[in-house]
Amino acid sequence: MTAPTGRRRPAYDAASLLTVAVAEFNTRGYDATSMEDLSRAAGITKSSFYHHVSGKEELLKAALTRALDGLFGILSEPESLSGPALDRLRHIIYRQVEVLQSELPYVTLLLRVRGNTETERWALARRRAFDASIASLVAEAVADGEVRAGVEPSLAARLLSGTVNSISEWYRPGRPGSDALPGEVVRIVGEGIIPPA
Amino acid sequence: MTAPTGRRRPAYDAASLLTVAVAEFNTRGYDATSMEDLSRAAGITKSSFYHHVSGKEELLKAALTRALDGLFGILSEPESLSGPALDRLRHIIYRQVEVLQSELPYVTLLLRVRGNTETERWALARRRAFDASIASLVAEAVADGEVRAGVEPSLAARLLSGTVNSISEWYRPGRPGSDALPGEVVRIVGEGIIPPA
Fold first, then answer.
1. CA pair distance B62, B13, nearest whole angstrom
2. Is residue A4 part of a domain?
3. With A52 labelled, which of A71, A156, B44, B168 sits at a CA distance of 20 to 30 A?
4. In this structure, are A43 and A78 located in the same domain?
5. pLDDT for A103-139, tens place per residue?
6. How far apart are alpha carbons A184 and B54 in whole angstroms?
7. Residue B185, Cβ neighbours under 10 Å: how many?
8. Could you say which of A28, A86, A156 has the minimum Cβ distance to residue B196?
9. Whether residue B124 sits in one domain with residue B42
10. What is the CATH number of the domain that holds A28?
11. Residue-number span of the structural domain to which B93 is assigned
12. What is the largest CA-CA distance in chain B?
């Protein structure tokens, strides 16, 4: 991540502390990360750290908000709001992959939330609301005859988000093929991952 | 899980402690779970707990071994070893979903491993070896002309395991449709999650 190295104490602000904190949360897990761990990773004292933030839950909330804003932002894009349901779905999936790529640490953290704190339960509820929007679009596409009959909307929505979200487990920025990934994912959700010849 | 309730101290053995421990690891995260947490969840003293196991890493190793044995067992089934590559792939995916369903807490734990301890790094290496077998089968299916040309084997293998593994996030035993799930997943990896009509 962007944690500075070297001897001089860096001039930290809330944004750079967030970057450091998200990296720690993703490495250790949120529950296992202490304010001591965060101050050590940032290279500042615990009291300096508390000068910037009230505690680790504030950082968690800021990080999850960033991921959720990215995802919910997609739903209000023009291409998500009008046109055939299947085209809207494809647009949303394409953009979900793009948001995952550009906001990788934040989305990764969101996907690992367990629900042990109020902030985590809030984020889980927001994720469920996002998935419900997808399920409702799948249902619309099936009802309109754009998606093959027999596709069960809630299972399809779960597998769609599972497939997209799993990318956070291995994607690293700058890999060859990164630019093609959103389009490739849209292709495979319509044609299959291993379509017969 | 199967943790007994009620007042009498249960007669615990290593197997039931494993069940309790895996549930705790999945709820809190492995790093954040202490031997105190485990003894409390099991309803026995810490010293009784140490009578059965050397520490939490021993329980982690036993749990991950159970998940990995289930998955690697698939690769030596006759249907995984002979026949067209695409048929072998389909069999493996079908069985992966079945193993995930029957060994849900163990597979869930395996999928959440981060690599912070030697045991976790061992499990990650085994997971990578499993995924490499899948990638090699996809490559074979593409080379044999069974899978549409243009499918990139390592991306396909990653998305295959991502799709299957994501089921652990929402699957609960006894849901309606559980029996049909392995077949449904095999269908969607060949035809798409939202195949056009």
1. 14
2. no
3. A71
4. no
5. 999 999 999 888 889 999 999 999 999 999 999 999 9
6. 47
7. 24
8. A86
9. no
10. 1.10.10.60
11. 60-191
12. 63
